[in-house]
Amino acid sequence: xxxxxxxxxxxxxxxxxxxxxxxxxxxxxxxxxxxxxxxxxxxxxxxxxxxxxxxxxxxxxxxxxxxxxxxxxxxxxxxxxxxxxxxxxxxxxxxxxxx
Length: 99
Fold this sequence. Notes:
The chain is mainly alpha-helical.
């Protein structure tokens, strides 16, 4: 399926871009290939198939939850560029007069 100039202009407006002649023709060809693939996929008979999240059988490998000791706070804060009152100190992101 070939895209018209009006359709490409519409896509440019939606994406808020302006394409040059070469880029525009490359996009036109790429979109045409994508549309052809989607049209081809629409012809596949999927009757009787249940929707799936994955193509193949997928079983996530989960590890067992184990309680482990965490690193000591002093050790972690020792590598921080700035720490105060037992926490990381970071620059303010909200000015006091904005509150």
